[in-house]
Amino acid sequence: MTLLDHPDAKGFILHWGEMGTHWGVNRSVAQIHALLYLSDRPLHAEQITDALALARSNVSTALKELQAYLIVRRVHVEGDRRDHFVAETDLWEMLLRIAAERKRREIDPTIQLLRELSERLAQDDAAPPHLRERIGRMHQFIGTLGGWYDQVRVLPKPTLVALMKLGGKVARFLPGSKKK
């Protein structure tokens, strides 16, 4: 019996693939990640290809993408010359790695563009004031978000877990917050 023979494993892999499309990740990339996450042993590309009925080139491309996110790594299995792959199974580590890569790819270039636009608009007397104001606010907002992430990502995992469990209750420690 293979992993995919179990209906719940198959259901998870299919759902993860579907959710991946909502998160901006290719369906097959997400399905491969799910398969490797659930697998109790390293898998080589041919096993992944067969298990998910994907083209070999698609699997190769997806594995490179997952490795770029640092949530899948290549390992060697004694007696087998092929590359095998395993997924990160520490969920916090996985979350932090995905967040770091998404910030690098999406947030950082946006902050840079907004900085350039804000600087240019500050010198452009012909620019409508509302354009200057809105681009400036967006730059400040996204910059604050990026700064917050940079501060939070260096916190120890137990602290992150505690903060997450506190949820909205953390607000009671802030000045000016009302007690309910």
Task: Summarize the helices and strands and which ones pair or pack.
Blueprint: H1 7-22, H2 27-38, E1 43-44, H3 45-52, H4 56-68, E2 72-77, E3 80-87, H5 91-123, H6 129-152, H7 157-166
Short description:
This protein is 64% helix and 9% strand.
Characterization of the model:
A 3-stranded antiparallel β-sheet has the order 1-3-2. A hairpin with a 2-residue loop joins strand 2 and strand 3 (80-87). The model has no long low-confidence stretch (mean pLDDT 93). It is 64% helix and 9% strand. It has 180 residues and is mainly α. The protein contains 7 helices and 3 strands.
Write out key terms for the chains shown.
about 180 residues; mainly alpha; three-stranded antiparallel β-sheet; elongated
Class by alpha and beta content: mainly alpha
Continuous helix count: 7
Percentage of residues in DSSP E strands: 5-15%
Low-pLDDT runs of 5+ residues are none
Biggest beta sheet attributes: 3 strands, antiparallel
What distance lies between the first and last C-alpha atoms, to the nearest angstrom? 54 Å
Order of helices and strands: HHEHHEEHHH
**What's the count of strands?**
3
- Overall mean confidence score, pLDDT: 93
